[in-house]
Design goal:
Blueprint lengths: L7 E4 L6 E4 L9 H14 L1 E4 L7 H8 L24 E2 L15 H9 L14 E10 L9 E5 H6 L3 H7 L3 E4 L1 H8 L17 E4 L3 E2 L4 E2 L7 E4 L4 H15 L5 E4 L7 E5 L3 E5 L12 E8 L22
Parallel strand pairs: 2-3
Antiparallel strand pairs: 1-2, 3-13, 4-15, 5-13, 5-15, 6-12, 6-14, 7-8, 7-11, 9-10
Bound molecules: fe (ii) ion (FE2).
Fe (ii) ion binds next to loops.
Keywords: Dioxygenase, Iron, Metal-binding, Oxidoreductase
InterPro entries: TauD-like_sf, TauD/TfdA-like, TfdA_dioxygenase
Protein name: Alpha-ketoglutarate-dependent 2,4-dichlorophenoxyacetate dioxygenase
Length: 317
């Protein structure tokens, strides 16, 4: 068992992801305990905190702010509940009337389908997302689905053949929010007539370095539409090959949510993730999940984009 002073670390996968026990987030952490938790996140990429028990959204936000600048939502989907803090993103399956979403609510379900593709939160933005912190307020009954999957994008890069590493080392991925939604909802009239190239695009290195550990990361996500300087089809083929490589079962950790009050934190600059769709709870049981996102402040935070363009950027997704 790896040693830690302020909590117990239980590795959940051979190369990344862990659970920690013994962290009570109903009270503020000391600086030393927080530093140990942040180091643990950088090393493992995903940290599940059992029994974190934030007393309210306020403590969830305050905890997140210790990682950096917490994103505030600029736009709230009118088909979602209104929540009191702009820092809290609604990841529930509830609609504006606080009722379970059904498949007939197209404006609500397109996002759910988009999040079921492998991605890093906010990669479509000029300034990307660093940490996401997801809090389980109300989980559906056990074994009805709703788990979250993560892929180790650092180990996946490390294991690539040398010639692939050489081929992709200086490439730039061009990311698009719309690309993800179109891919996930090919028949939706909401996106059918929109062209990805007419919408905002963000440029990020395909292989950025994860600064805290110095390890290269495969930053190809369901938002990556093409590769700069490559024909679109050829770039998309390469992106799909890299995502397929990085999300092989040997690189994936499946987090089964267990108890209300559990929290998952992940580093979007080190791992990919996806929600799993098609669980038996869908359309039937409430799943109230709330997320904060912390903006990246590292050297690759703005990728190859103009930082000015980040001012009006979309909410993370
Ligand atoms: Fe996400």
């Amino acid at each position: 068992m790896p040693s830690a002073t302020y909590f117990t670390i239980k590795p959940m996968h051979p190369t990344f992801a862990c659970e920690v026990e013994g962290l009570d987030l109903s009270k503020p952490l000391s600086d030393d305990a927080f530093a140990e938790l942040r180091d643990t996140l950088h090393k493992y990429g995903v940290v599940v905190i059992r029994g974190a028990n934030f007393p309210s959204d306020k403590e969830h936000i305050e905890f997140s702010a210790r990682f950096g600048e917490v994103e505030k939502s600029k736009y709230r989907n009118p088909h979602m509940r209104s929540l009191p803090y702009p820092e809290i993103f609604d990841i529930s399956n509830l609609d504006e009337k606080n009722q379970v979403v059904t498949n007939s609510n197209e404006k609500r379900t397109t996002a759910i389908r988009g999040n079921a593709l492998w991605h890093a939160d906010g990669s479509f933005n000029p300034r990307r997302t660093y940490v996401s912190c997801l809090n389980a307020i109300e989980l559906p009954p056990p074994n009805t689905g709703g788990h979250t999957e993560y892929a180790d994008a650092r180990q996946a890069y490390e294991d690539l053949p040398e010639e692939t590493k050489e081929k992709i080392k200086d490439l730039v991925g061009v990311h698009s929010f719309l690309h993800n939604r179109k891919t996930a909802n090919p028949d939706s009239p909401l996106f059918k007539d929109l062209n990805v190239l007419d919408e905002p695009l963000a440029r990020h290195k395909l292989v950025p370095i994860h600064e805290p550990t110095g390890r290269p990361v495969l930053y190809a996500t369901a938002y990556t539409h093409h590769i700069e300087g490559m024909p679109i089809d050829e770039g998309q083929k390469l992106i799909q090959e890299l995502i397929a490589h990085a999300t092989q079962p040997k690189y994936v950790f499946k987090h089964h949510w267990a108890n209300n009050g559990d929290v998952a934190i992940w580093d979007n600059t080190a791992v990919l993730h996806r929600a799993t769709a098609g669980g038996a709870y869908e359309g039937k049981y409430r799943r109230d999940m709330r997320r904060t996102c912390v903006m990246d402040s590292g050297k690759d935070a703005f990728g190859l984009n103009n930082p000015e363009d980040a001012k009006g950027q979309r909410n993370s997704s």
